[in-house]
Automatic annotation (TrEMBL):
InterPro entries listed in its UniProt record: Peptide/Ni-bd (IPR030678), SBP_5 (IPR039424), SBP_5_dom (IPR000914)
Keyword Disulfide bond: no
Solute-binding protein family domain: residues covered: 57-434
Keyword Signal: yes
Family: Belongs to the bacterial solute-binding protein 5 family.
Protein name per its UniProtKB record: ABC transporter substrate-binding protein
Keyword list, A-Z: Signal
Main location: periplasm
Cellular localization per UniProt: Periplasm
């Protein structure tokens, strides 16, 4: 086990009480913030990035870019002198170049790429959420420092999409070395990036150790070492924080906030989150293929009571899949009120009686759902009152995500925090491409919704896009593939020694730029 006292005593060692173990260290293979925090947000960079603590796009590994007048081509000019990490298991012989960009995207795109099927070969973001197979025409290396993306059709949020985690740039040289050695899986287990921190070691369910990248292209981090102390229990994490054994807790219990704020050595930062928590019905399974059943179970849930019990003042009822702070939100939508009589009538109309089902409950705290088990228990009781018997199911976080992606569930509690500030990012959780890839946990494919979604993405005028997205939200609400539960306020509890940690509106935990005062 990690000796927290000795680690925290070291100068400039930041200890983060992370909420769970990552699924792995290649962000293209995963969708969880837990895995992104451990990989893309600290080990890697992207061509363009979001400014720390904001949704503003800034240059990353590309120092500049041009977009053609027709919106179909994007030409990126790479920074010179960018070094990949030098570790005990890899020594780079060259700087970042266009080959690394092509490798990072083609691995996800091309079925005949030597790494396409390595480590499972599932790319939910690339294939589903951002639908790149339907968008990309070609990616070309113009020269060592220039890459051109050509699109099949205009894509309004394209620049924002390549700023998110799946688009992290990897070392093609390291990948080839692992392939030549016959150990390509190590590429995904022992990561090499260009980011501010480099990977040192990982012990599942215990810790991840990093050290500062001395050659980081944007300047060395103020911190010397970074440790993720994996602490799924929020109460235990709070105890570690109070004892000085970690510096930051990402998802403190609402009940602990008052005592944290009363502690002169601690502080709490809060921000309204760009997120939504939901329960998805597996629409490929009967009787959830019938929208009357889905509507009935919406009516059966006492959402306000659930939010009061689970969020304890830090959440508000969600009626749309978009958060209300995001442009394109449809204010006119009416939510399903709590109406058990209506629920029973709809179930009877659909010919459903004595229904037995499941409710999958996440094993980890997330900003959009701080206590999934408790939420599941309350939903279970509400559904029992209308004659539906539901078994609560839970499992390890990585397995939970993997099996729900495959559609093993009847209903599943999940949620989303924005990757980029565009309605496309939330509604892509419900499109047909995402249903095929498994990212759409409702496995819902509706032509009317999909046509609107695909129409909006090629329109550049925000007002026209808003009109289309409002129509798409109306279709969603009528069809009810989800119960939209809540949008939450995000809290971060930290030591007063922490300098310049910024809450990420897109949900990440970025430690470059953070310092510790003596």
């Amino acid at each position: 086990m990690l000796a927290m006292g000795s680690v925290s005593a070291q100068a400039k060692t930041f200890v983060y009480c992370s909420e769970g173990s990552p699924e792995g260290f290649t962000p293209a293979l995963y969708t969880s913030g837990t895995s992104f925090d451990a990989s893309s947000r600290n080990i890697y960079n992207r061509l363009v990035e979001f400014e720390r603590g904001s949704t503003i796009i800034t240059p990353g590994l590309a120092e500049s870019w041009e977009v053609s007048e027709d919106g179909l081509s994007y030409t990126f000019h790479l920074r010179s002198g960018v070094q990949f990490h030098k570790t005990k298991y890899f020594t780079p012989t060259r700087e970042l170049n266009a080959d690394d960009v092509l490798f990072s995207f083609n691995r996800q795109w091309k079925a005949d790429h030597p790494y396409h099927k390595v480590s499972g070969g599932t790319y939910e973001y690339f294939s589903g959420y951002v639908s790149f197979p339907d968008i990309l025409e070609s990616i070309e290396k113009i020269d060592d420092n220039t890459v051109k993306f050509t699109l099949q059709k205009p894509d309004a949020p394209f620049i924002s999409k390549i700023a998110i985690d799946f688009a992290s740039i990897h070392s093609a040289e390291y990948a080839q070395q692992m392939l030549d050695a016959g150990t390509p899986e190590k590429f995904d287990q022992e990561p090499i990036g260009t980011g501010p921190f480099q990977f040192v070691s990982y012990q599942k369910d215990a810790f991840i150790r990093y050290q500062a990248n001395d050659d980081y292209w944007s300047g060395r981090a103020p911190l010397d070492k970074l440790v993720f102390a994996i602490t799924p229990d929020a109460q235990v994490a709070y105890q570690k924080l109070a004892a000085g054994e970690c510096h930051l807790v990402p998802y403190p219990n609402q009940a602990d906030l008052t005592s944290i704020e009363a502690n002169k050595d601690l502080t709490v930062d809060s921000q309204e989150g760009l997120n939504v928590g939901y329960l998805a019905f597996n629409t490929e399974k009967k009787p959830f293929d019938d929208k009357r059943v889905r509507q009935a179970l919406n009516y059966a849930m006492n959402k306000e009571a659930i939010i009061e019990a689970v969020f304890q003042g830090a959440g508000k009822a969600a009626k749309n899949p978009l958060p209300p702070t995001l442009w394109g939100y449809n204010e006119e939508i009416q939510d399903y009120p709590y109406d058990p009589a209506k629920a029973k009538a709809l179930l009877a109309e659909a010919g459903v009686s004595n229904l037995s089902t499941d409710i999958w409950a996440m094993p980890v705290k997330r900003p959009y759902n701080p206590n999934a088990r408790r939420m599941a228990e309350l939903i279970q009781a509400d559904w029992a009152a209308v004659g539906v018997n539901a078994e609560i199911v839970s499992m390890e976080w990585g397995e939970y995500l993997s099996r729900s992606q495959k559609g093993d569930h009847d209903t599943v509690l999940l949620g989303w925090t924005a990757d980029y500030p565009d309605p496309d990012n939330f509604l892509s959780l419900l499109n047909c491409a995402s249903a095929k890839s498994g990212g759409n946990r409702a496995r819902w494919c509706n032509k009317e919704f999909d046509d609107l979604f695909n129409q909006a993405v090629i329109v550049s005028d925000p007002e026209k896009r808003t009109e289309i997205y409002e129509k798409a939200q109306a279709v969603f609400k009528e069809e009810a593939p989800w119960v939209t539960v809540a949008h939450s306020v995000v809290h971060k509890a930290m030591s007063n020694k922490v300098v310049d940690f910024r809450i990420d509106p897109l949900g990440g935990h970025v430690f470059y730029g953070v310092d510790l005062q003596e």
